[in-house]
């Protein structure tokens, strides 16, 4: 991905606005990160794409105490040409999606930045997991972006009502789509527009790249069939990339920008406490009636949550997932303190 399709869009179509311009000093050069590799980036200026690296001190800082300062796809950065482009700093983010990187010591890892809406994809079939969607919802809400749950491959089921009921209960907008029939595509486009950025997330095989191609109205991303034996996808997308979407008259970028991403099957949110609360508002509301404020809803007397599960007012699987997410967050915070 060279970023060539982003040539000549200008900063406005790239999503640059007052929030970012207030952080710029006179004479500074600004670009947006279109592709992130290990130690180099494709950045897009007002004129077009260029390859860049991090300046020495900036690179060192992101390797040690300030990992979250490292730019990710969607970030706006300040750079210099000396003579090749070098990124000196990244601007503060409006929104972000963070996860916990793999490994024993919890380290925050940016997924994407400055996104207006996150389309959380899950597909009809064995891949569908409301619990996984809940994890994404917690992280998206913690990062201040809008979350939309997308049920893809609707043409594979004759009766979607049970799936719609299960996903609709998660408290986010639900859009049912089919790349075969075109169902739901206009609803997705309603969340887009010039200067707006959407992110596609979900596990492999749920149809992210196919959906990206339909929204872009051309084959920007390669696709492959899922494995028949288990509905799992092949990783056809290997990097996150910023893609322009056509607007009225086919004008590039007039329909907004889209970030496609590789499949994420196991997702652990980073510091998603408030997002978890927002994702489990029904559980949180009942928990207010527990006898003890620090009730963990296990064996404590007077637990209103356990009572609500027993009489059918709360779903036991949702309660268990909320407890598991909170435990993971507590463990991550504890390890982080011990690792300092």
For this entry, give a set of tags:
Ribonucleotide Reductase Protein R1, domain 1, globular, OB fold (Dihydrolipoamide Acetyltransferase, E2P), 27% helix, disordered C terminus
What structural class is derived from the secondary structure elements? alpha/beta
Q: From the structure provided, what is the oligomeric state, counting identical versus distinct chains?
A: single chain
Alpha-carbon distance between the two ends? 37 Å
User: How many whole angstroms does the radius of gyration measure?
Assistant: 21 Å
CATH level 4 superfamily of the largest domain:
P-loop containing nucleotide triphosphate hydrolases
Strand count, sense and barrel status of the largest sheet are:
6 strands, mixed
Strand order of the largest sheet: 10-9-8-11-13-12
User: What's the CATH topology name of the largest domain?
Assistant: Rossmann fold
Number of structural units classed as domains:
3
Coarse shape: globular
Report on this model:
The protein is α/β, with parallel strands linked by helices. It folds into three domains: 4-92, OB fold (Dihydrolipoamide Acetyltransferase, E2P) (Beta Barrel); 111-260, Rossmann fold (3-Layer(aba) Sandwich), CATH 3.40.50; 280-339, Probable gtpase engc, domain 3 (Ribonucleotide Reductase Protein R1, domain 1). Helices cover 27% and strands 23% of the residues. A hairpin with a 7-residue loop joins strand 6 and strand 7 (108-113). It is globular and about 70 Å long. The two termini are 37 Å apart. 41% of the residues are buried. Mean pLDDT is 83; it is low at 224-237 and 335-340.
